[in-house]
Amino acid sequence: MSTTPAAAHELPAMPVAEAEWRRVYGLSPERDVPFTTLSGDAIRPLYTERDLPPGIGGDEDPIGVPGAYPFTRGVYPSMYRGRLWTMRQFAGFGTAEETNARFRYLLDHGQTGLSTAFDMPSLMGHDSDHPLSLGEVGREGVAVDTVDDMETLFSGIPLGEVSVSMTINAPAAIMLAYYVVAAERTGVPATQLAGTIQTDILKEYIAQKEWCFPIDPAMRLVGDMIEWCSGHMPRWHPVSISGYHIREAGATAAQELAFTLRDGLTYVEEAVERGLDVDDFAPRLSFFFNAQIDFFEEIAKYRAARRIWAREMRERFGGKDPKSWLMRFHTQTAGVSLTAQQPLNNIIRTTVEALAGVLGGTQSLHTNSYDEALALPTEEAVRIALRTQQIIAHETGVVNTIDPLGGSYFVEALTDEMERQAYAYFAKIDELGGMVAAVKSGYPQREIADAAYELQAEIDAGRRIVVGVNRFVEGNDGDATLLLKIDPEGEQRQIAKLAANKAARDNALVASTLAELKAAALTDRNLMPLLLDAARARISEGEIVHALQEVWGDYRETPVF
Amino acid sequence: MVAAAGETARKIRVVVAKPGLDGHDRGAKIIARALRDAGMEVIYTGLHQTPEQIVETVIQEDADAVGLSILSGAHMTLVPRIVALLHEQDVDDVVVTVGGTIPADDIPELRRLGVAEVFTPGASTQQIIDFIRTSSDRGRTPV
């Protein structure tokens, strides 16, 4: 399936100069360090024309031109000369009021889209007054219990004009219903809403570990959302297939690539099995990748992802609309690459990672703040992170030409290698009976845990250098970083708000709506319209999730380490 | 815990626990595996544990040490509860350690509560192994 049928490929003859270089290089001493990618793959000292993939210039050119199959060089013909990537900083903490203020701050400083982080209870489908929510309310994101919180979160922001991203998965269908109803209250219909909700439940079981239901009903809920959005929200991306968390959990670049694309292909299968035409929903699938510190490996990963997705969507699923073939993606720099030691160094790490995302052709970008290994970012740190993107966009000149690294012997060879490794993982997943079966058996979870352990062992042994952690540690004292503190009273305020909400609603309507939802959960009926009714009836997230758990059960992981 | 003669060869038993709702288990799993590879008996609780569940595991497993991994910022709520529950159950000989994104400002208070050590980002697995080994041995050996 890969584009590298090496046997049929006739290598160009080795030029005399290269043969001479090889001889000289063979006599030269090398430093005693591993010349490997962050993922551990050996890198050769030099790449030449002989390392380029076969077929360049032919009918099935593996590199081609931007905006044309197989999109290795970018999904659009004009890329950043036409329009820069969306600078989209992820934000959310405390109550809806506090996050609303941060959103307005970011829009005032030139950010062009919003991205919402929810707190742990919201991600797990617990209300703020649930016993397990204790101490977690508003900690790692904003607390949203009801449609009223959602309305407050986006208060004063023109939802018909700004594109909004929401990072939530297991209860995504509920949050989307809240969002649609909150917009409806301000007179903006669902058809006008633009944005993305993550909804990538497979990677929750693989890596992020925020779930509500067993895998099968969770997949059904994803299918319900894709189906409903394809008929009612033409500007909305109902799934953002995410490798970010897989990578953060310790995956290699190739694992991130392979597991993410395979998750995406599994959602496509789910939708096609429901009878949807691939061209009716595929153009609104989007991706979310990590940008780690190994610059070229990351760029190769994005380029390979575009090529694989285009091929699978065209060849395997028979998509006719070229928009169905496009692997469009958001990038976030790697949280795990940040160090608590000498935190200002993180600005440099983030810059290099952001540049990889841009040279890899990302459609939107979040740059991490330098203080995030310590706490939630302060406003100053967030501003520097945004300025990093603006400097790349407006000062460096890297946006002047499309895919400036296209044709680089090394980058093209590495792109091919990424693709080859991804297909090797696909074959293994096929053997296990597909991605859902593989996840149930813990296969990707084990692969990731192994990779994470190996990398940590390399760092601990000093074989891989992390500046300020295992080398160059002078200056680690003096922890003068100003940290953002979450107001501990916020949790009580949020619980009081929830109680007030529950006291002010029509309880008969709440009961009948939940009863209908539970009945429908036992049938094939699409649940989205009922979730919208539940939002309008001001039913809380925890109540909805609890009702569905009564029908479907919950999920317990067998941990592998 | 009684350390009778002949039990000196008993492996150190460590519970690695994830209190609260955060799903960041990369560190917990690496530590669990590193402690196991270092010859300890490791019980990993898995995710989303309540303080009550963790204390029950510590008691049932007759653990010498418990490592709490928290990256959600809820440590100042969860750790005091776990320590208090251990105390209520008269479990005073278990070494309690905390790992995760713990701001420096919070560390003195955690220590005051009885946490033996706090490991922040960048701590090596060897440091953690050494600490657990030294402090658990000290806890078990009758003086």
Secondary structure layout:
The complex is a heterodimer of chains A (561) and B (143).
Chain A lengths: L15 H12 L51 H4 L3 E2 L2 E2 L4 H13 L5 E4 L2 H5 L22 H7 L10 E4 L4 H14 L9 E3 L3 H8 L6 H18 L3 E2 L1 E4 L1 H5 L4 H21 L4 H4 L3 E7 L3 H22 L12 E5 L11 H15 L4 E3 L12 H16 L14 H23 L3 H6 L2 H18 L28 H15 L3 H15 L6 H9 L4 H12 L9
Parallel strand pairs in A: 1-10, 2-3, 3-4, 4-5, 5-6, 7-8, 8-9, 9-10
Helix pairs in contact in A: 3-5, 5-6, 6-20, 10-12, 10-15, 12-13, 12-15, 13-14, 19-20, 19-21
Chain B lengths: L12 E5 L8 H12 L3 E4 L6 H10 L4 E6 L4 H14 L6 E6 L6 H7 L3 E3 L5 H16 L3
How would you characterize the largest beta sheet of chain B?
A: 5 strands, parallel
Overall geometry of chain A: globular
> Going by CATH, what is the homologous superfamily of one domain in chain A?
Methylmalonyl-CoA mutase
CATH class of chain B: Alpha Beta
Mean pLDDT of chain A: 93
* Strand percentage of chain A: 5-15%
Any idea what the radius of gyration of chain A is? 24 Å
**Biggest interface:** A-B, 48 and 34 residues
Largest sheet: number of strands, sense, barrel closure of chain A: 5 strands, parallel
Tell me the count of domains of chain B: 1
Task: State Rg of chain B.
Answer: 14 Å
Class inferred from helices and paired strands of chain B = alpha/beta
CATH level 3 topology of chain B: Rossmann fold
The CATH architecture of one domain in chain A would be Alpha-Beta Barrel
The span between the termini of chain A is: 33 Å
Helix count, DSSP H or I runs of 4 or more residues of chain B: 5
Name the features.
heterodimer, A: 561 residues, alpha/beta, TIM Barrel, five-stranded parallel beta sheet, 21 helices, 47% helix, 6% strand, B: 143 residues, Rossmann fold, 5 helices, disordered N terminus
Question: Please, could you describe this protein's structure?
Answer:
- The complex is a heterodimer of chains A (561) and B (143).
- Chain A has 561 residues and is an alpha/beta fold.
- Chain A has a domain at 79-407 and 475-480: Methylmalonyl-CoA mutase (TIM Barrel), CATH 3.20.20.
- Helix content of chain A is 47%, strand content 6%.
- Chain A is built from 21 helices and ten strands.
- Chain A has helices at 16-27, 79-82, 96-108, 120-124, 147-153, 172-185, 201-208, 215-232, 244-248, 253-273, 278-281, 295-316, 345-359, 379-394, 409-431, 435-440, 443-460, 489-503, 507-521, 528-536, 541-552; strands spanning 86-87, 90-91, 114-117, 164-167, 195-197, 236-237, 239-242, 285-291, 329-333, 364-366.
- A five-stranded parallel beta sheet of chain A has the order 1-10-9-8-7.
- In chain A, helix 10 (253-273) runs parallel beside helix 12 (295-316) and helix 13 (345-359) crosses helix 14.
- The longest helix of chain A has 23 residues, at 409-431.
- Chain A is globular, with a radius of gyration of 24 Å.
- Residues 1-7 of chain A have low confidence and may be disordered.
- Chain B is of the alpha/beta class.
- Chain B has one domain: Rossmann fold, CATH 3.40.50.
- Helices cover 41% and strands 17% of the residues of chain B.
- Chain B is built from five helices and five strands.
- Chain B has a five-stranded parallel beta sheet, sandwiched between helices.
- In chain B, strand 3, helix 3 and strand 4 form a beta-alpha-beta unit.
- In chain B, helix 1 packs across helix 5 (125-140) and helix 2 (51-60) crosses helix 3 (75-88).
- Chain B is globular.
- Chain B starts with 12 loop residues before the first strand and ends with a helix.
- The A-B interface holds A 120-121, 123-124, 126, 131-136, 139-140, 204, 208-210, 248-250, 336, 339-341, 373-376, 449, 452-453, 456-457, 459-460, 466, 468-470, 479, 483, 486, 556-561 and B 20-26, 28-30, 32-34, 44, 46-48, 50, 72-74, 76-78, 101, 103-105, 120-122, 124-126.
